[in-house]
């Protein structure tokens, strides 16, 4: 099929030879593309939107032919959630609780611990009504129910959220897995010690507790001082070691106590050199070996992970490490390996490899996913042992038979070999009846859910099959045969009807209607022509309307489009002819006035007028399909660009139309054209204003012009008089200052600087600006009519708001302007024994209450802010920036004023960490009579009186970045932001502001004196080469609290 633009051109090609009044039915059908052949299946990659007869590529391929039942629904097979035979049950990861799941699976496979938990008394579960859901309360009840579900549930995985919530754990924060293990076993031991059954009190000790002692031997007298202790796991340092034996040996090796670390001997009664070592006296049934992969890095101040390969055996003989062997079993068999995947101590993923005590098969527990290892062998797999950093890859060492090697194992669980472990009675753990009933109830709920899901799947399949038959039947009826009646339906509706993922709504043809209530010719590309029989079936089933049949083809719209297109085609010839005819002057009294701007751009105006006429026939919803001819015409005739200072023309002769609707009085903007020229222009602009040669200009405009000239003359006279009376004020010469009070007067008058600026602007351009009529001193007064500034405050910076006047200047001001409140400052001198004393007072006097409130508000605004901007400037190699641009810059709204006159600007504060050119490089030029006239340059006050225009925008320098901060934000949180902006870790950041170092990470920015628009200097230390440590810092944005506030600590 031809491209869409070609189809649109072909639909209107007949207008070149047919006038609007000669349009026939065949022309209307061509415009609506009724006769374009329909596309055959396979001929189009996608649907031809320009062809209303193309019904290919609208989604029908999904329904034609045989369809798999699974395409009719998006419901997974509920049996995929069912536990496979002879497999274990997984645990759902609630966000970052994989470390909890691994330990729960390890403890579940400890048959003695599981059997003990089942013996715990649980009156609530035993008496529970099976009609309602069982909700455990205590930690023991939760663990009981969870183990029962892990043992007998029909689900592939279960949700441990009840236990996690009872422990008070944050599901979104990953915690220290080793610390969790210690705290949970301690909590469980305390819980079991309170059981009524005395056989349960010491189960944790029997399973996990061993005996050791710290023995210190005095080198002087040889006295040995043992300190007995219990342990539940051995914490083994792995740094610098290759295998487990080396780690255990270092754990037990002798430690020298000398120098400042000498030991106080009870026998010698003095400090002596000594030797200390750990002695193992007895080992537990389950030996937990914690490999200390997560250590504290003193350099960074954070934890880091040691990705060191450690080799460990499947059978571990602890005999050589015991002091008193006797008959104690010392050979242990590996029963679990806990893995941490990832290079950072603050992120990653935990999984567990656990050996089944009954079958000796190894399983990998990865939250919901459980994988059985082949050949009853532990297979750690490549994904557990390869770290995620490619640069620091080290080769995995070769392991001997019966050994395994891992760089991610952080805990090894060994179980003592006993003969009774092979006894079926010992390996078989029965679920108590009261827990079995609860599990059976949960299994029934699961089966009901499976049936419900299966039923929903069946309903979706049945619905899909019915839709399949409907589509196959209707799609064959859709094409409209030549010579038969037809109707139009929206293309988008047909697509949604064929898209089974969306609900089919009623047919809406309302967007296709033209202003005459019929089918718009530009909307035909968005509709499809179908047979009446198919339309009847669709409208009967889905409803909607209005129905658009062959009688709704709009003859009026086609005629209007024909007229517009013909004029567009004729425009090029008429443009050349008018260009030649305009050169000929009209005969006397027979011409017409035409605007010169209109004549220069009449071709573009004609195009726009034709397109506007065409737009009137278009529907208002979005773009239409009839844009092809418009685009072609625009490209063909080009665009006439007007001069930059001329406003955009909308209609012809608009440029000679005054605001009263009459002929403009400016003869230079219009010219006379002949009647022949005007008649041709009138074809394109039938609504354009028409003025004959005899038409008189607008009388109101003539009267206003006379009045305007008179007002301009008055303004010039007024400006000249005021300028001569206040020449020094205008030229900023001989201005009084507060820093050096003039000797010839004891009184100066104060007016707002804003008033002086506006007055100077009027003096410079009296005909373009409005005269200043009043002074407006109320800007400088409080609500009680008191003055807001003191003499000292004006010296320190408030003088930027005011201008000082001599007494004779004030007399002139009082005569020429309305003064709401005179403001003056007086100097009084008194003789004292130590010399003369000078005091300054203002009239009206200072309002102390409002002044204090004003200062307090300023200070509070500087200390209590939210979403304010500060700037961080990075210093490289202790080099100081040569130039520091002023912090105060002119806002964009003042740009025009600056072009008119020099405006005083205040220098930015000098930053002690950076040098600044002595002459104030890049600063705005200071005028003699503004800020410098009132006082020496000073930092701008942060608060200001409303109505006083000033700029506070900071000009960013190279190497400087803006950050959004709040006053209650801590310095550590700011360092995290700086880290993301500059890629400098917090511990490498040295921050300062105004020469003060910022070191207290816990302090808020408000308390540290960081105010809005502050510039903070950043000096970065040399970055460390440990990428894993850098990753740790990115993870630790808040202080680590561990298990504080959780149930593991008794809260």
Explain what the structure shows.
With 1051 residues, the chain is of the alpha+beta class. Helix content is 32%, strand content 17%. It is built from 30 helices and 36 strands. The strands form eleven sheets. Strands 5, 10, 14, 15, 16, 17, 18 and 20 form an eight-stranded mixed sheet that branches. Strands 33-32-36-34-35 form a five-stranded mixed sheet, with helices on one face. The protein has a four-stranded antiparallel sheet with strand order 4-3-9-6.
State the gist of this model.
Belongs to the peptidase C19 family. Pfam families: DUSP, UCH. With about 1050 residues, the protein is α+β, with helices and mostly antiparallel strands.
Furnish the topology, listing elements before pairings:
Layout: H1 4-11, H2 25-31, E1 90-91, H3 98-108, H4 111-119, H5 123-126, H6 139-152, E2 157-158, H7 161-167, H8 177-192, H9 203-208, E3 210-218, E4 224-231, E5 234-236, H10 244-252, E6 255-257, E7 263-265, E8 270-272, E9 274-282, E10 286-291, E11 294-297, E12 302-305, E13 310-313, E14 315-317, E15 331-341, E16 349-355, E17 362-366, E18 369-372, H11 382-385, E19 403-406, E20 409-416, H12 424-427, H13 433-477, E21 486-490, H14 491-498, E22 507-508, E23 527-531, H15 532-542, E24 544-545, E25 548-549, H16 555-581, E26 592-595, H17 596-600, H18 602-616, H19 628-637, E27 670-673, H20 675-684, H21 699-725, H22 727-731, E28 747-752, H23 753-764, H24 791-796, E29 802-805, H25 807-816, E30 824-832, E31 835-843, H26 848-863, E32 868-875, H27 895-900, H28 931-934, E33 960-965, H29 971-982, E34 989-993, E35 996-998, E36 1015-1020, H30 1027-1035
Parallel strand pairs: 1-2, 5-10, 22-24, 32-36
Antiparallel strand pairs: 3-4, 3-9, 6-9, 7-8, 10-20, 11-12, 13-19, 14-15, 15-16, 15-20, 16-17, 17-18, 21-23, 21-25, 26-27, 28-29, 28-30, 30-31, 32-33, 34-35, 34-36
């Amino acid at each position: 099929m031809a491209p869409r633009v070609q189809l649109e051109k072909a639909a209107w090609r007949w207008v070149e030879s047919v006038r609007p009044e000669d349009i026939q039915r065949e022309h209307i059908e061509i415009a609506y593309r009724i006769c374009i052949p329909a596309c055959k299946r396979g001929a189009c990659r996608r649907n031809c939107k320009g062809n209303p007869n193309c019904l290919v590529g609208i989604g029908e391929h999904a329904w034609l032919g045989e369809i798999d039942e699974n395409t009719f629904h998006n419901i997974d097979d509920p049996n995929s959630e069912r536990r496979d035979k002879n497999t274990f049950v997984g645990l759902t990861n609630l966000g970052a609780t994989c470390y909890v799941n691994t330990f729960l699976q390890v403890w579940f496979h400890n048959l003695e611990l599981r059997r003990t938990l089942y013996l715990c008394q649980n009156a609530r579960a035993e008496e529970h009504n099976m009609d309602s859901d069982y909700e455990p309360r205590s930690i023991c009840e939760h663990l009981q129910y969870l183990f029962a579900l892990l043992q007998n549930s029909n689900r592939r995985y279960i949700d441990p959220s009840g236990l996690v919530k009872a422990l008070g754990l944050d599901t979104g924060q990953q915690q220290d897995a080793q610390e969790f293990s210690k705290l949970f076993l301690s909590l469980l031991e305390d819980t079991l010690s309170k059981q009524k059954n005395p056989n349960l009190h010491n189960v944790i000790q029997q399973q996990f507790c061993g005996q050791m002692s710290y023995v210190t031997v005095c080198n002087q007298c040889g006295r040995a001082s043992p300190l007995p202790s219990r342990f539940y796991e051995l914490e083994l340092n792995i740094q610098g070691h290759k295998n487990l034996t080396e780690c255990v040996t270092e754990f037990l090796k002798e430690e020298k106590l000398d120098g400042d670390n000498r030991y106080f001997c009870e026998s010698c009664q003095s400090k002596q050199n000594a030797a200390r070592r750990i002695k193992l006296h007895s080992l537990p049934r389950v030996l937990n070996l914690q490999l200390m992969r997560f250590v504290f890095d003193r350099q960074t101040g954070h934890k880091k992970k040691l990705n060191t390969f450690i080799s460990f055996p499947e059978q571990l003989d602890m005999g050589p490490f015991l002091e008193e062997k006797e008959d104690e079993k010392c050979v242990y068999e590996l029963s679990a390996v806990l893995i941490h995947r990832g290079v950072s101590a603050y992120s990653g993923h935990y999984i567990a490899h656990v050996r089944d005590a009954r079958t000796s098969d190894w399983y990998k527990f990865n939250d919901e996913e459980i994988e059985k290892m082949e050949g009853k062998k532990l297979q750690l797999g490549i994904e557990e042992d390869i770290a995620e950093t490619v640069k620091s890859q080290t080769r995995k060492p070769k392991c001997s038979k019966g050994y395994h090697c891992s760089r991610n194992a952080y805990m090894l669980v060994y179980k003592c070999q006993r003969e009774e472990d092979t006894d079926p009675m010992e390996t078989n753990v029965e679920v108590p009846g009261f827990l079995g009933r609860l599990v059976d109830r949960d299994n029934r709920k699961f089966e009901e859910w499976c049936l419900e899901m299966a039923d929903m799947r069946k309903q979706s399949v049945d619905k899909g099959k019915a839709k399949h038959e409907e589509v196959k039947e209707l799609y064959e009826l859709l094409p409209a045969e030549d010579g038969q009646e037809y109707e139009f339906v929206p293309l988008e509706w047909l697509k949604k009807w064929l898209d089974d993922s969306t609900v089919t709504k009623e047919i809406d043809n309302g967007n296709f209607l033209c202003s005459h209530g019929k089918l718009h010719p530009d909307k035909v590309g968005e509709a499809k022509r179908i047979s009446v029989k198919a339309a009847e079936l669709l409208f009967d089933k889905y409803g909607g309307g209005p129905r658009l049949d062959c009688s709704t083809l709009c003859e009026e719209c086609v005629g209007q489009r024909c007229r517009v297109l013909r004029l567009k085609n004729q425009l090029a010839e008429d443009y050349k002819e008018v260009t030649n005819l305009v050169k000929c002057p009209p005969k006397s009294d027979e011409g017409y006035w035409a605007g010169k701007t209109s004549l220069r751009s009449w071709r573009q105006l004609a195009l726009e007028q034709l397109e506007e006429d065409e737009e009137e026939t278009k529907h208002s919803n979005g773009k239409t399909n009839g844009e092809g001819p418009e685009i072609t015409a625009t490209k063909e005739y080009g665009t006439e660009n007007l001069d930059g200072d001329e406003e955009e023309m909308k209609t012809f002769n608009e440029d000679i139309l005054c605001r009263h609707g009459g002929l403009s009085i400016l003869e230079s903007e219009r010219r006379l054209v002949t009647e022949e020229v005007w008649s041709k222009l009138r074809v394109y602009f039938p609504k354009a204003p028409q003025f004959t040669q005899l038409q008189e200009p607008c009388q109101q405009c003539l009267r206003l012009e006379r009045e305007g000239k008179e007002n301009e003359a008055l303004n010039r006279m007024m400006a000249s008089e005021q300028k001569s009376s206040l020449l020094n004020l205008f030229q900023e010469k001989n201005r009084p200052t507060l820093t050096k009070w003039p000797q010839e007067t004891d009184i100066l008058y104060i007016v707002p600087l804003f008033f002086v600026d506006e007055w100077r602007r009027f003096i410079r351009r009296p005909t373009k600006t409005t005269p200043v009529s009043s002074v407006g001193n109320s800007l400088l007064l409080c609500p009680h009519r008191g003055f807001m500034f003191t003499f000292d405050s004006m010296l320190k910076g408030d003088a930027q708001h005011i201008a000082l006047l001599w007494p004779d200047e004030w007399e002139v001001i009082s005569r020429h302007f309305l003064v709401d409140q005179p403001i003056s400052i007086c100097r009084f001198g008194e003789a004292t024994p130590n010399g003369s004393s000078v005091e300054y007072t203002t009239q009206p006097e200072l309002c102390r209450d409002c002044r204090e409130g004003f200062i307090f508000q300023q200070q509070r605004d500087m200390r209590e802010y939210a979403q304010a901007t500060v700037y961080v400037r990075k210093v490289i190699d202790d080099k100081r920036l040569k130039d520091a641009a002023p912090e105060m810059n002119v806002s964009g709204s003042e740009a025009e004023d600056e072009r008119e006159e020099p405006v005083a600007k205040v220098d930015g504060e000098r930053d002690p960490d950076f040098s600044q050119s002595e002459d104030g490089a890049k600063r705005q030029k200071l005028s003699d009579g503004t800020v410098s006239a009132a006082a020496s340059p000073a930092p701008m006050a942060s608060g200001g009186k409303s109505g006083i225009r000033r700029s506070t925008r900071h000009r960013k320098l190279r190497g400087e970045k803006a950050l959004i901060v709040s006053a209650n934000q801590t310095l550590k949180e700011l360092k995290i932001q700086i880290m993301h902006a500059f890629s400098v870790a917090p511990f490498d950041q040295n921050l300062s502001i105004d020469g003060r170092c910022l070191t207290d990470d816990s302090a808020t920015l408000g308390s540290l004196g960081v105010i809005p628009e502050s510039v903070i200097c950043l000096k970065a230390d040399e970055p460390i080469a440990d990428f894993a440590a850098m990753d740790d810092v990115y993870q630790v944005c808040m202080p680590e609290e561990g298990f504080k506030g959780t149930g593991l600590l008794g809260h």
